[in-house]
Amino acid sequence: MNMDAPEHTCFRRALGGRFSPKRVTRLAETIEQIVDDRLDAMERSQKPLDLQSVFSLPVALGTICHVLGIHVRPEWNSILDVMELDPPLEEDLLADYQQFLAAMTEEVSSLREAPHEGVLSFLLHDVGMTDEEVAGAGQFMVVAGHHTTSNMITLGTLVLQRDRRHWDAIAHGPDALPNMIEELIRYITVLQLAPFTRTATADVTIGDVLVRAGERVQVSSPAANRDPEVFERPDEFDPERDPTGHLTFGDGVHQCLGQHLARLELRIAFTRLVERFPDLRPAVPIDELEVNPGTYPGHGVHALPVAWGADDEGSTA
């Protein structure tokens, strides 16, 4: 993400075809199975339950691990706090990172001995990248591929249920779902600042501001996605709007590689969730939810307790 050509071109060219719309479409059946398995787990669980940990996170993590061709491991969730920190890391965070790296190195070593159809095996055997390069790519993609999507599923559920017409519309008008998802992606903007830092290679004037060569610029994607000069009533969620031009997935040569996969996951997750639990609802008042701090790279809630059915007196519509 912070590479320039020719190094970046090598990685991007190698990975582009593996995340193309055509290739991603073939994953629909697998994602549907992952989603259905988690919905079954929800039905077996005691209510209220945490949608984030029981459904959203396992769906997103199971999907990206399938795509990469690695096992679902607890180490993949221990690294997020490290992403925004500069070395040296505190001892506990350094230990988390070392465990994360060791787990990914182990996965790559097993792929060296037993290749298969996964993305990391492809990079290792077909592209000819080194074990270290593949482990680095794996670390980046496993984090980028599940924390963003899981938070989007949970927050999207919350937004859609603020007006039950939007939630019900998924079941009654599935053709409108792609546009609704695009508006959700604009409105929520899970990834806040992390991927949008750029370093000027020459002096450049943007508006009336001179950015000198070597200076870093960081763009607030939530602010861009709510720019009143681009979107009318930007602070409103409007599934009827055309959200073309949002920057949730970035832009240019570093535009999000997994955006087509994310859209497919969201479409399947929301469709199946509404079909199975049409009366799903938050089980606590919205203002009691704990939201990630503003310095955190991803927008999200720590947990979203939900319930359904008529037997949960403590649930809150």
Which helices and strands occur, and which strands form pairs?
Blueprint: H1 7-16, H2 21-25, H3 28-44, E1 49-50, H4 51-68, H5 91-113, H6 119-127, H7 131-144, H8 147-162, H9 164-172, H10 177-188, E2 197-199, E3 204-206, E4 209-211, E5 216-218, H11 221-225, H12 259-276, E6 281-282, E7 305-307
Antiparallel strand pairs: 1-7, 2-5, 3-4, 6-7
Helix pairs in contact: 3-4, 3-12, 4-8, 5-7, 8-9, 8-10, 8-12, 9-12
3D structure, described in words:
The protein is mainly alpha-helical. The chain has one domain: Cytochrome P450 (Cytochrome p450, Orthogonal Bundle), CATH 1.10.630. Helices cover 49% and strands 6% of the residues. The protein is built from twelve helices and seven strands. The chain has helices at 7-16, 21-25, 28-44, 51-68, 91-113, 119-127, 131-144, 147-162, 164-172, 177-188, 221-225, 259-276; strands at 49-50, 197-199, 204-206, 209-211, 216-218, 281-282, 305-307. The strands form three sheets. A three-stranded antiparallel β-sheet has the order 1-7-6. Strand 3 and strand 4 (209-211) form a beta hairpin. The longest helix is centred in the N-terminal third of the chain and has 23 residues, at 91-113. The N and C termini lie far apart (41 Å). Residues 312-317 have low confidence and may be disordered.
